[in-house]
Structure formats: C-alpha cells, structure tokens
Amino acid sequence: MGINLTNFLSSKSKNTKMIDFQDLDHIDGISISVVSANLYKDIRDDLTMFYFRDGANYASVYTQSKIVSENIRWNINQKPKKIFSLIVNTRNANAFTGKQGYESLKKIADITAKQLNKKQEEDEENPKKISNKNVIFGCTGTIGETFPYEKISKNISNLVNKIRYTQNKFIWMKAALAIMTTDTKPKLAMEECKIGNETVKIYGIAKGSGMIFPNMATTLAYVFTDATLSNDILGKLLKKNITNTFNAISCDGDTSTNDMVTIFSTNKVKNSQIKSVNENKIRHFDMSLNSVLLNLAKRVVSDGEGASKFITIKVNKCKNDLEAKKIAFSVANSPLVKTAVAGEDPNWGRVVMAIGKAGPKINLKKLLIKFGNITIVESGKLSQNYDEKLTANYMKGENIEINIEIFTGKKSFTAYTMDLTKKYVEINADYRS
Amino acid sequence: MGINLTNFLSSKSKNTKMIDFQDLDHIDGISISVVSANLYKDIRDDLTMFYFRDGANYASVYTQSKIVSENIRWNINQKPKKIFSLIVNTRNANAFTGKQGYESLKKIADITAKQLNKKQEEDEENPKKISNKNVIFGCTGTIGETFPYEKISKNISNLVNKIRYTQNKFIWMKAALAIMTTDTKPKLAMEECKIGNETVKIYGIAKGSGMIFPNMATTLAYVFTDATLSNDILGKLLKKNITNTFNAISCDGDTSTNDMVTIFSTNKVKNSQIKSVNENKIRHFDMSLNSVLLNLAKRVVSDGEGASKFITIKVNKCKNDLEAKKIAFSVANSPLVKTAVAGEDPNWGRVVMAIGKAGPKINLKKLLIKFGNITIVESGKLSQNYDEKLTANYMKGENIEINIEIFTGKKSFTAYTMDLTKKYVEINADYRS
Predict the structure, then answer these.
(1) From start to end of A63-172, where are the E strands?
(2) DSSP assignment string, B122-133
(3) Contact, B172 vs B203, CB < 8 A?
(4) What's the sign of the alpha-carbon dihedral A9, A15, A16, A19?
(5) Which helix (H) or strand (E) holds B411?
(6) Contact (CB<8Å) A257/B336
(7) Burial of B384 (0-12, 13-18, 19+ CB in 10 A)
C-alpha cells in the first residue's frame, strides 16, 4: 500500500509544498459538520452534513446500474432549484432496502428541513424556507441491510448544532475521513482559478475503493465552488469533465448501486455571468475542475483495494474514441495484466492478449507498445532493442505506464487502474465478517 | 483446490464407478504419441501427436481475439478435406512470434508429412498421400517468446516412432497430462451413444485454467469420435453445442490468443449417413457431444487458477438469450461476487450489484434470488424467511449455485465459474518467474 501521490498534484496548484494532501480551507457559503452516529462497531465518524446557508446551485451524475440505491432514487426524484443540505452516511448503502430505506430518507429530510429552518430563523436576516426537497443524500456501505433510521435521525440535531460559518483544513479532512468505508486514505483535492477577473475556489472530497468502474465511476465525490454558476452550466461542465476523469478509472470492473458525483456552487463570488460552457471566461474554471476531478479519481484508484501500484494505460491513434476506450479498459480490467503488474513481471504478452480481446481491429503490422519510455513492441514485433532486465527494473516502480499505439486513426483514451494483489482478495473475502 | 468432480459425470456414462476420471480406451483410427521435447525446465511430457491413419473429418472453433497465435493462423489457412495429424505443444503459445512462429510450423508440418508418408508406405496397404496441409497445431504457453522450432522439429521422428494402433486409458491420460500448463489436473471425458443402430464413442481431452472467457472459451479441447460424420455436420454440431458449454464458462474474463476446440471423426463406425443436424438419428450423438463438452468445460472451470469453489449461475425468465447471458456473465465475472464466495460470505448484495450493472432491465418487484434451494430475495425484497446462518452454512460447500429469476420473459442461460482466491493472484503474479 502507500502509493506516492506526489505526481497527482496539479502543477497549477498553489499548495505544491504539500506532498500527499492539499490544505482545503474556507469556502464561503458552506458549513460542514461531522458526527459519529455509531453506525460502525468501532469509534469513528460516519455521518456528515454539508449545509449551504443560502442554498447552492448543483448538478449530479449517478450510477448507470439498473438497480439503484434508495438515496439515488430520492435524489433523482427531488428537483429543487437549490440544495440546502447534503447528508452522507457510511456503513449502510441504503440499497435493496425498499420502502423502509426510501421512507427513512424522507423522514430524515423532514427533520433536517425543520431544524435548518429553525437555524435560519436564529442566524439569518432573511431566513430562507427549506423543505425536505432541498436535502439530498449520499449513502455508502453494505447493500441490503435495514437502513439505520433511528441512529441517523437522532443525530441530525447534533449535526445542526455543530454548524460553524468558517471552515478550515481540519473540518475538510474530518469530512473526507467520515465518508470513507474500506478506503485507507482520505481523498481531497483543490484548485484556485479565475472566472474573468474574479478568483474562485474548487474544492473536492471523494471516497471509494473497490467497485470502481466507468458508467459512471467512483463511489462518492463531492465538489464545491464559491463561483456563481447556474445549475445548467454546472451540469454541462460536470458531464464534460467526468468522461476522462471518473469515467476513466477502473479498479475491479464492478459498479456500485450508489455511485454519485455532485458539484455545488455557493454563488458567493460575484463573477460575470456564464451563459455557455464554450465562453472563453469559463475555460480556466473548466480546466481546473478537470484537474480536481482527475486528482480525486486518481486518488480513488491509488487507494483501490489492496493496490500496490498505480497503472496508467494510454491508448493512442485509434479510429474513434469508443475503440480507444474499449482497448484501454480491456487492458485496465484484465486480471492477468493486473496480477502481472503486482508480480513486477514485464509480461507484455498479456497486454497483447488484452488488446486482442478488446474487439476493435488492430493494425498488427504497426502496433507499438511501450512500458514507460521503454519500447517493447514496435511494428507489431518484439523490439530488437527489447531489454528484459531494464523492463523488469521499470516494473519495480510504483507508477506503471502502459503506452499503446493502434495506428487505425487519431483518437486517444487514457484509463487508470491499479494492480491486483492478494490483499484485494483478502479485503473482499472478509468484508462482512 | 481439489473440487470434487463427481457431479460432473454424466449419468448416462458407463463408467460411473470412476469418481474423478473416466477410462478412455481405444477408438479406431486414432494413434496418440507423447514425448518430452524439453520445452520446460523440469522433466515432463510437453509434445503430443494425434495421428489419424486414414485421415479424419474435422471442425474447429477458434478464439475471437483480434490478435491470434501463429498456429491458429496456420490452422485457418489450411483447408484440407481431412486432417492426418494434430500436434500440440505446451510452454510456448506461438503468439506474437510473427514470421519465425509461422514458418516454424510450416517446416514442422513438412517434416511431419514426410515422416508420416514413410509410415504410410510401411504400414498401409493403400498408403495415403499426406501433405503439410493435413497437419494442424495446438499451442499453449507464454506469449511472445521465440517458438522452439529446433526442440520440436527434432522430436517429430520420436513421435512417429511411438505410433501404436491400439490406444488405452494410459495413453489418453498421458496426452491429457502433456497438454497441461498451469492446470493442476488432467481433463478427460467420454460418452458412448447410438447413431441409428450403431454404437459410437465420443472421447475428449482439454486443458485450461486462467484466460477462460466466452467468445470462445477455453484454452484447448479436442474431441474424437469413431462415427462417420462429414466436416459440414461436425461443424454444425460443434457450433450448436459450444454455446452452452465452452462459451458458458468464465474464469477471469480474459481470452487467449490461442483458444481452440476441434472435433475429429475417424469414420470407422459405418453408421447411416447424416445429412442434417435436425435428423432424429443424430439426436443421441448431439446430446452426448454436449455432455462431453460440458463435462470438459466444467473441469476447466473447477481447475481455474486458484479455484476452491465451483459456481453455477442460472439466470431464468429473461426477455431473450442475450440478456440472460449478459446477466449470468456479469455475476460470473464480478470480482466482488467471486471473492465473497471464496470467503464463504453469503453476500447477496454483491449479486444484486452484479445483476444491476449487467445492462438489461430488471423487474425489481418480482426479482428472485436463491443460493441453492435457499430463497434470499423474493418479489424484489429480502425474503422474510431469510436465514443468514443457514445460508452461511450453504456457502461452506464446494459447489455454489446462484439461481436468479428476472421475470421479463422466458429465456435462460447458465454460466459456470469459480471463486477468486489469493492463490489466483499468487499463480498469476509468479507465472514467468
């Protein structure tokens, strides 16, 4: 375990002095509270509330599983203009819990709205009217167990009592820790950027290891910005940037019933209005959002269950995007490739196998495969300069890059995954015991 | 390891007194010779010749990988009416060996044809003229290493010298052992059946563990019969029966460049002519061929790398065959389901997850899931009679059956796989070292 994350940090980030974690601090308009609702047997935080005192614009992408958790159903059914609270619990996925799970969320949303309205009356000059529709949920944990309504509902007042209007790095870290399940590390990322002349922040936290596969991808990721952006623009930006970030990662090819990525904007920075994602003014934000999402997605992969190595698979010169993606994921999801990497074995034959079974036609006479900068296969043959010792030495690193050129066109796709270790099996064979 | 294979034996088999292995004996028209060509570092047989003194009719199905081994290319390029020899080597897959690999096979086929012609002159009243086109190859082992032409070619005379015209159980077992790679057990199966009034034999051997996935499926399987059947009829029977046998198994979702299933008929039993696979006369043979293929396919799965449990996934009441197959393989290929079975954890939530991500629409209000005869989910809810202890006890068995009813139609598909254990990772991370 313990993949070095240094190289995930964007060079554009201000906090490059931090190696593993960036310091997320205050974003106007967000309050974070974290408690232990005793959902686990051990002492740990497991229930988190994000509160937007003036409401937040938002957009979500959800799992594409045909069976979705009750909280995803709840979130999809509410269509408020603004979100006032996101509540995230761990230990229980609220999936396959049926009416009990859904009704529990409704009641918790009722309680939350009621208590937040009281809070608004106390703290705000112009108190907003919050309804249960302004509350959405993230749930993660075991599928099919009764949703712990009692434990969660009785902790809403504790969460509300903990609301403070200034945030710092400790509370972000606490939240990132509280949403973890089998994760070994909290996942945080940040960027600052300009919209016109205004500087805005983009902060994100995520959890996830295991059940990571595109369409969409990770378990949970929440991104927050103080920019002023409409629901429509947020939705377009999120959709655009999810493809090569959270939809480009794979740990074990399994997909959760609960996957959810949401972006919230508190509209506290009065940047100039954005009417289209193609405007030049939004370009810097667009790129920075991509950095935050990719940073989080890579952290999810590098913490993939039992991971000892981070694998980047770059597929270039394909006929179209879909073929590039198919080949990249065929390699990324191959247990034989992933175990070879775990064993530090430069078994390029398995990469060839995975390219071959992907489906798209290959120009075998031109096919190029490199491990890092080391050319393995060129013009469809084992390179005359192939040096097994050199390559074996490369495989000892923590970051393995597999570069593939197909020579049927001009399109590319990069997928990210980790190796398949004995530890993965250990974690997953013991999960519930 | 060591899954009990008793239940794989067809009840129609004559040899039910044998538990793990059936006795394959003599089939007219086939000679088997086995040698050690020193392809491995250890002492073991690694080169096998099947010789058909009067030629055999035949049909093959090959891997659907877009990158195929040189022996598959050779086999596809030859289109003789009859095959006189099949030569199988282990240790080297002859994949990604390019011209060296292909030319080696051509030269070996030349040598083989020459020596078999000499043998024909010596032994036969009416010697047949054998050309290199009458020789096909099975190769299995590591991809991308130079094909060991010297070692194999100089052993052809040894193989020819060992030709005997009566076969027994020892030589079949020897051949089944000689074609193994990481297999822990040889794989043999047999049936006897009637075509009209004539009794015919169907014998088969197979190898394979790891890289087992449909389209098509196993590594290598060879089936032999003394029936008189044309190439056309053999092809149709093989295609028909591969769907729910070798194309219904999955070990790790990977597909080889070398997969090959071939059926040979020596035409020694003068059964009445079969012109169509729909004729009533061929029904018994059809079913028996299915039994032999399924028996071999199950043996391949049960010997899947690191397997400790055999898993049968039956998906019923689907809209169409494709949807049933998608759901069955989504469950069969899920690392989370497979590790749960390894851990003897009745984690039905992961089965739900795998059904959900498969793609086809699910009738959630009716969905039924059983482990063996134990109802887990009914009418889309956890069964009121669900007994975790009872189910946990069921998971301790070696044969786990997951029964799923989707309630969108009438179609079914059954997939076979094994659990995912630490041993799997161990075997595959160490393969080449």
Answers:
(1) 83-89, 135-139
(2) HH-SS-----GG
(3) yes
(4) negative
(5) strand B411-418
(6) no
(7) exposed
Task: Please say whether the dihedral angle defined by the alpha carbons of residues B121, B124, B125 and B128, taken in this order, is positive or negative.
Answer: negative
Nearest CA in chain B to A379: B98
ω into residue A211 within 30 of 0, thus cis? no
- Which among A349, A332, A337 is positioned nearest to B258, based on CA atoms? A349
DSSP A163-180: --S---HHHHHHHHHHT-
Catalytic residue among A218, A228, A245, A255: A218
Contact A402, A327 (CB under 8 A): no
* Cα distance between residue A426 and residue B339, in whole Å: 8
Name chain A contacts of B426, Cβ cutoff 8 Å: 422
Model pTM score: 0.80
Which whole-number Å values give the CA distances from A220 to A2, A90, A198, B82, B357, in the listed order?
Answer: 21, 11, 29, 60, 17
- Give kind and range of the element (H or E) at residue B377: strand B374-378
In DSSP terms, B399 is beta-bridged to B310
Which pair of structure tokens corresponds to residue B388?
A: 């975790």
The distance of Cα B59 from the centroid of its chain, to the nearest Å, equals 14
Taking the CA atoms of A358, A362, A364 and A368 in sequence, report the sign of the dihedral they define.
negative
| Residue to test with chain B: of A63, A67, A315, A378, most B Cβ within 10 A | A67
Q: Which pair of structure tokens corresponds to residue B166?
A: 């009566």
In this prediction the ipTM stands at 0.71
- B218, B225, B228, B266: which one is catalytic? B218
Interatomic CA distance for residues A74 and A77, integer angstroms: 5
Instruction: Give the CA angle between residues B140, B146, B147 to the nearest 5°.
Output: 50
Q: What structural domains does chain B harbor?
A: 6-302 (3.60.70.12), 310-429 (3.10.20.340)
Average pLDDT by stretches of 10, chain B with 433 residues = 45 40 90 96 93 98 86 96 97 89 98 98 96 97 90 98 94 95 89 96 88 48 98 97 88 71 97 96 97 92 83 96 93 88 89 88 90 92 89 94 96 92 77 48
Burial A324-362 (b: 16+ CB within 10 A, else e): bbbbbbbbbbbbbbbbbbbbbbbbbbbbbbbbbbbebeb
